[in-house]
Design brief:
single chain; 214 residues; Rossmann fold; six-stranded mixed β-sheet; 6 strands
Length: 214
């Protein structure tokens, strides 16, 4: 029977092979999470067994220029949490969006209480752009991520994600891919980076994500 290091190495090779062979970004990231051993612990493990709402609020400028980015990011983050945080019950994003559409925005704890959530993963999206010049794609984002404990009435986790970029080096010519394709890839990678604060993951995942291609 192979030793554990040998098994881990084999799994890593399989995952990297899948990363190179598959074309769907969600499939790529899921393969990385499933096949690679998790050697990096969660920064905040308190989502386990909780009823969780993921809410993303873009700054006013983004609401006018890119109205869908907040909800798309919240949906993607919720998906990663549902798959990777044990026993967490993530409130469907349609339910979150419906409540926000039907009520005047107050604050994250109010939304969480109305949805009967134990915790709210709150994402203030402060920057989100896809282009570097007229002919290149390079995603850039900045976000402030907090977790509100509704019963305790306090913030139990607080983290900033400043100037996140994809690709980390270089850029992708706009002639190579459509904007929706690049947008989908960037949203998935940004969501994965936010979600991993709440679950353990393999340290090689960062390398795999940064080297994904279409």
């Amino acid at each position: 029977m192979p030793t554990r290091p040998a098994r881990d190495a084999a799994l890593g090779l399989i995952a990297l092979a899948l990363l190179g062979a598959c074309s769907g970004c969600s499939t790529l990231l899921t393969a990385a999470y499933v096949l690679m051993p998790e050697d990096t612990p969660a920064e905040f493990g308190g989502l386990k067994g909780k009823h969780v709402a993921v809410v993303c609020r873009p700054i006013v400028e983004l609401e006018f220029s890119d109205a869908g980015s907040g909800r798309e990011l919240a949906t993607a983050v919720g998906g990663f949490l549902q798959r990777n945080v044990r026993r967490a019950r993530i409130i469907d994003q349609h339910e979150v969006a419906r409540w926000i559409d039907e009520h005047a925005w107050v604050d994250y704890p109010t939304v969480g209480k109305a949805l009967d959530a134990d915790l709210v993963v709150a994402i203030d999206l402060e920057q989100f752009r896809l282009h570097e010049g007229a002919t290149l794609y390079r995603g850039r984002a900045a976000a402030h991520v907090r977790v509100f404990d509704i019963a305790a009435g306090k913030v139990v986790f607080d983290k900033r994600l400043d100037d996140f970029q994809y690709p980390a080096e270089g850029a992708i010519p706009t002639a190579d891919r459509s904007e929706p394709q690049f947008r989908g890839m960037f949203l998935q990678i940004l969501a994965a980076r936010i979600a991993r604060s709440f679950h353990s993951y393999d340290s090689r995942t960062s390398f795999a994500e940064e080297n994904l291609t279409f």
